[in-house]
Amino acid sequence: MTFTWHRHHPRSDLHEMLHEAVPLDAQEQKILDAQERAFIQRRSMIEMHMQTANRQLSEAITNHPGWTPAVEAAMQHVEQAAADLQRETLVHIFEMRAGLKPEHRAAYDHVLIEALRHGSP
């Protein structure tokens, strides 16, 4: 799940729901834009690690077809990269929440929780 508040990036359905539920003022938008730029950089680094792990997995499968120790080890690297991305996304979610005015947090929480319950993109 990726949240994109920045105006210059594609917005998900979740982003649209959050934006509708939480009317941002200029200061909140400025804070969230800065957080989004930092998150994009962190996410890009993790995605590069994920691509590397996927290449290693493909090489392991090519060299050792079947569920072998080499494939298992490569798969663990893929899983770690995916977990890192999920963790970083959750950190970002809470950073964004902290950048909101207290009176906007309940609406943000509601949309986020519903999206997690129902599988938002």
Automatic annotation (TrEMBL):
It comes from the Bacteria. Belongs to the ZraP family. This is Signaling pathway modulator ZraP. It comes from Azomonas macrocytogenes (Azotobacter macrocytogenes). The lineage of its organism: Bacteria, Pseudomonadati, Pseudomonadota, Gammaproteobacteria, Pseudomonadales.
